[in-house]
Amino acid sequence: MDFDDNSPVAASDASCDAVDSRACDVTILVCGSCRDETGSDAHPRAGAKLAEHTRLAANGDIAVRTVECLGNCKRRLTAALIRDGAWSYVFGDLNTTSGDDLVAGAKLFATSTDGLIPWRGRPDSLKRGMVARIPPLALIKEDK
Asked: Would you call the peptide bond into 44 cis, given omega within 30 degrees of 0 as the criterion?
């Protein structure tokens, strides 16, 4: 996947035709520039393969966007789940076929009432591979 230097997100990757509109509130960001465990520079990159697998698994029910880099290179294939007004999650140590897990996690996230991905029911790769959980700006309190 080629990226425009002025746009870190490939906007044409987005899709959301979900029957349950709550799923449209979640976006899966996949690092398309991630390399495989060997560090190969071959194209398509492993991250682009993960992005494609995720789009196929989402089947138009959840927006999937390919981004140039999520800066988590030591943990190889990386993706994030984001939802407006909720916590954001970054996952690493994924593989090219982790798209099903990302979609399952996104569906759990879409049904969450507290803005967190429930631990119960979360795929193992999203339990073991969690790199960061970032709070929504509205929850950040100023230091006094």
From this structure: yes
With a cut of 90, say whether residue 13 has pLDDT above it: no
Q: Are 82 and 66 in contact (CB under 8 A)?
A: no
The Cα 107–Cα 103 span in angstroms is 6
**pLDDT one-digit tens code per residue, 85-130:** 999 999 999 999 999 999 999 999 999 999 999 999 999 999 999 9
In a domain, 110, yes or no: yes
Distance CA 123, CA 9 (A): 26
Pairwise CA distance, residues 60 & 81, whole Å: 16
CATH of the domain at 71: 3.40.30.10
- Which residues have C-beta within 8 Å of that of residue 75, sequence separation ≥ 6? 92, 93, 129, 131
Treating both helix axes as pointing N-terminal to C-terminal, what angle do 99-111 and 46-58 enclose, rounded to 10 degrees?
Answer: 50
